[in-house]
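Most newcomers find our protein records easier to grasp once they have seen one. Sequence and backbone structure share a record, each on its own labelled line. Nothing more is needed to start thinking about how sequence determines fold. As an example, a complete record with its sequence and its structure tokens follows.
=====
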Amino acid sequence: MTNTIQPRKLGIMGGTFDPIHYGHLLLAQNAAEEFDLDQVFFLPTGKSPHKANSQVTRPDIRCKMVGLAISDNPKFELSMIESQSTDVNYTYLTLQKFHQIYPGTKFYFIMGEDSLDDFKNWKNPKEICRLASLLVAVRNDLGNTIQRKVLNTVNDYSADIHILHTPNVSISSREIRKRIQLGKTVQYMLPKEVETFIRMNSLYLG
């Protein structure tokens, strides 16, 4: 009887993480547990095709905050594949790089349900679906609505797509930035180490 070696299962969660907060961390932890992932890579964006760079904190600073936030979780790892690139980052190219670095690995790309709405406008969505399974985070059970979106994505791009149920934690990076600018507390919204780093470097004040 021959033992079949199962491929490693790696999750990838991209985002600006400006700043990273508990909503991001809970989503990654849920993905790791629900789909038995060996590791989850946090992938801060560099040059995004969707956001003006002038509106986003420098990549090295955002990477530092991610590193501080995930340092106590052995399943979490920081990837700077996009943040160190000088080119505009497209997900399908990033996934190609991951396959080159980790051959024989099964990849799961973690995305929000709102991203699924816009997926048809992403660069080369069919290639994304060839290179990774999609884990779509849903905060509320939307019934037929989310099922219809999933079915359309499967039919359009031959996607292997799964619903990722996640706690309904209403935290956003935009809200955190605004509260800091207004001098309000952000306690319990993000790790203390990240908040300390933000305060020490006078981020999001203007």
Summary: Residues 144-157 form the longest helix (14 residues).
